[in-house]
């Protein structure tokens, strides 16, 4: 009588084709989202740097707004202008701040809405916007 030999097959490891397609689709979606959001973040960062530069000039309100506008022209800031800045002197020191929303169209009726806000106040607390006249 012959004895049957059993060969033990090791478990296969790796990624299936469907798994690979799914992973690539997720990576692609994240990359597209990042490419749409990153420029708006750079614009926000440039706006934030511009209000600190305008505050450092220690000028009048109008001079700080013009300083911001000059910086905005150089750094291609289009979301806000010097007119949109909130200038407050509640603590005795001049503080500049801004807040705006950026709508990023992604596909068809699908958009992403991001709220950006920054201030030069040490505590990071945004002052209340001035009451309309």
Estimate the global geometry from the Cα principal axes: elongated
Low-confidence blocks of residues: none
Q: N- to C-terminal separation? A: 106 Å
Mean pLDDT: 87
How helical, in percent, are the residues? 40-55%
Provide the succession of SSEs: HHEEE
Total helices: the number is: 2
What's the total count of β strands?
3
Structural class: alpha+beta
The multimeric state of the shown protein is single chain
- The strand line-up of the biggest sheet is 1-2-3
* Rg estimate, integer Å: 27 Å
Strand content: 15-25%
How many strands, what sense, and barrel or not for the largest sheet?
3 strands, antiparallel
Describe the structure.
- This protein has a three-stranded antiparallel sheet with strand order 1-2-3, covered by helices on one side.
- The model has no long low-confidence stretch (mean pLDDT 87).
- Helices cover 41% and strands 20% of the residues.
- It is α+β, with helices and mostly antiparallel strands and 133 residues long.
- The radius of gyration is 27 Å and the shape is elongated.
- The protein has two helices and three strands; from the N terminus they run ααβββ.
